[in-house]
Automatic annotation (TrEMBL):
Domain annotation ACT: ranges: 340-409
Coiled coil: none
EC number(s) reported in the record: 1.1.1.399, 1.1.1.95
Family according to the record: Belongs to the D-isomer specific 2-hydroxyacid dehydrogenase family.
GO BP annotations listed: L-serine biosynthetic process
Name by which UniProt lists this protein: D-3-phosphoglycerate dehydrogenase
SUPFAM superfamilies for this protein: ACT-like, Formate/glycerate dehydrogenase catalytic domain-like, NAD(P)-binding Rossmann-fold domains
Keywords recorded for this protein, A-Z: NAD, Oxidoreductase
Species: Terasakiispira papahanaumokuakeensis
Keyword Nucleus: no
Gene Ontology molecular functions: (S)-2-hydroxyglutarate dehydrogenase activity; NAD binding; phosphoglycerate dehydrogenase activity
InterPro entries in the record: ACT-like_dom_sf (IPR045865), ACT_dom (IPR002912), AHAS_small-like_ACT (IPR054480), D-iso_2-hydroxyacid_DH_PdxB (IPR050418), D-isomer_2_OHA_DH_cat_dom (IPR006139), D-isomer_DH_CS1 (IPR029752), D-isomer_DH_NAD-bd (IPR006140), NAD(P)-bd_dom_sf (IPR036291)
Associated pathway: Amino-acid biosynthesis; L-serine biosynthesis; L-serine from 3-phospho-D-glycerate: step 1/3
Amino acid sequence: MAKTSLDKSKIKILLLEGVHQSAVDGFKAHGYTNIEYHPKSLSEADLLEAISDAHFVGLRSRTQLTEKVFAAAHKLVAVGCFCIGTNQVDLDAALSRGIPVFNAPYSNTRSVAELVLAETIMLMRGIPHKNSRCHVGGWAKSAKNSYEVRGKKLGIIGYGSIGSQLSVLAESLGMEVMYYDVVTKLAMGNAHQVDSLDELLSQADVVSLHVPELPTTKWMITKDELSKMKPGAHLINASRGTVVVIEDLAEALKSGHLGGAAIDVFPKEPRGNDDEFVTPLRGLDNVILTPHIGGSTMEAQENIGKEVSEKLIRYSDNGTTTFAVNFPEVALPSHPDKHRLLHIHQNVPGVMSEINRVLSENGINVSGQYLQTNKAVGYVVVDVDKAYSHQALEALKEVQATIRSRVLF
Ligand SMILES: NC(=O)c1ccc[n+]([C@@H]2O[C@H](COP(=O)([O-])OP(=O)(O)OC[C@H]3O[C@@H](n4cnc5c(N)ncnc54)[C@H](O)[C@@H]3O)[C@@H](O)[C@H]2O)c1
Ligand SMILES: O=C(O)[C@H](O)COP(=O)(O)O
């Protein structure tokens, strides 16, 4: 008799880095009960073991999914980044194995923008120093180097989801906003785009970084860029730790060239809350240090948990890949009364005709077919009568250039 439902208890979901309970609830509500949950990231050795029989993995910014890890993940079907950044995942290694990667591109953007706005005010008022004096019994009551943000210049590097929201919030406080981006971006309110990074650095009272980690943003801010900032200006980085050469920043702060900094992300971050945090910025009382919590609010984490688990569940149940960051995007209708075959192959000429040939040679009637490709990979979805799905899957496996195929009941 044809199988009509998948045994979801056999599908292992590996959740790392304390992703929100909303993700666990989402999986369970859809019948996925085999969930291995870890409140922090795993060492590489533990990760290799845990992922070896996992079908889905959910992680945040700390876990590195390298080529080596993918090579050990023999059953992996999809990856969920429960955050914005996907730089911790080797997206090409995933793609070459037919593994889509999903993320949550918007859910924590407001949280980051709010934090940066607050830090802008704190830095302009010299609060880090005043706060630390009070904590040791001092009393630094003074207006020296303490300014309103109204009328001051905020320079935003990277005017995407976070940068543009920050722009609106900062303007509501009367700040003049300028931004630098490699793409021409529509200005929010009265903000204006500048032509070069140098132009922004030389004018802004506060510079805030909101670029993704890319080869082109790696070590984007070195002592050269810092030296171009106005004396007494402040730097905020809540993007990625590899964007700023942290030793150079420490020097610029110690020399007094910069007035202060607020740093949320670091080239080296501890694996969990029990590990020591080491940075040359420790002990500088004009610096706000936060443990990569720009997006860590209850609202953001709950929303991210729901959003990414939904994307993984939709892919698992129905094959839909919309909003995958590395994979051909296919939005699929439900498939009542049919079985659905998913076929992922290298994107070379002739695969579609071969698929249709093997299906027709096996006498399989196709009731729906969907295709999308990107540069490297093609993704074909075929709906067939239930009685034929096993035979069709075997036939599809014979197609040359197949990376993987599976059936949804
Ligand atoms: N601290 C945290 O907890 C936290 C939370 C969320 C996101 N982030 C980080 O913030 C980054 C930005 O988030 P987003 O949602 O605004 O991303 P986004 O993709 O919406 O925007 C990024 C912008 O940077 C621009 N850009 C790319 N390269 C550039 C360059 N060399 N110079 C100038 N501009 C450049 C892009 O054109 C884009 O407009 C994420 O990639 C992530 O790494 C950190
Ligand atoms: O990319 C992101 O969304 C942020 O860096 C947040 O990462 P986290 O989930 O590890 O806090």
